[in-house]
Design brief:
mainly alpha
Length: 201
């Protein structure tokens, strides 16, 4: 992390590769560098626009991984889960692009992302009901086991994703479904012992 971030990333040419290394570090059991990794993920996504689609794809994969939220490595990845939620919420336009890019045929790759070493990666979530899936995972009952500072970012990202979904989706039933989902789960956050989580909710 020190070498790659030195002199404003002067030594780094492949930011997708660096993002993948940060994710490996984040999910290594026993790692104590969660806050540093989380800060780097956010900073790279903020600074380097071409890496954002890869970062969003990687963060979605992380958020959908139950083992990270519930497993033994939870303490080491808590800050990284917060960064993942922030990136997905902040770049909800990329979530929209992935969700709206339905493959026209079996040969159509859908939403393609530039990954490490210039490799082209097909998004795992192309053409899915992605807004609903992400909001559902961010508001799942198990997220209340995460620290309040992480829950705050989850709630903030839900709002950003909801606003983007309301803007992008033309299907009223999909929007109604998301509204019902948010209403149903938000009660849990309103009852949080943390004042900040309550206020954001």
């Amino acid at each position: 992390i020190h070498m790659c971030s030195k002199d404003k990333y002067a030594l780094l040419s492949d930011f997708a590769w660096y993002t993948s290394i940060l994710l490996d570090l984040a999910t290594t059991q026993g790692s104590r560098h969660g806050p540093e990794v989380a800060d780097q993920l956010i900073e790279v996504a903020l600074r380097v626009d071409y890496v954002r689609p890869y970062a969003v794809e990687a963060m979605l994969t992380m958020l959908f991984d139950n083992d990270l939220v519930l497993g033994q490595a939870r303490n080491s990845v808590t800050e990284v889960l917060k960064a993942a939620a922030w990136i997905v919420g902040e770049y909800s336009s990329i979530v929209a692009s992935i969700a709206n890019n339905t493959p026209a045929s079996e040969d159509d790759d859908g939403y393609v992302i530039e990954g490490p070493n210039g490799e082209h990666i097909r998004s795992s979530w192309t053409g899915t009901d992605l807004f609903r899936k992400v909001i559902e995972v961010l508001m799942h009952p198990r997220t209340t086991n995460l620290p309040a500072r992480v829950q705050c970012v989850y709630v903030q990202s839900v709002i950003k994703l909801f606003v983007r979904a309301a803007t992008e989706l033309s299907d009223q039933s999909s929007i109604s479904s998301i509204i019902s989902l948010v209403r149903h789960h938000m009660v849990r956050f309103l009852q949080s012992p943390s004042i900040e989580v309550q206020e954001r909710s």
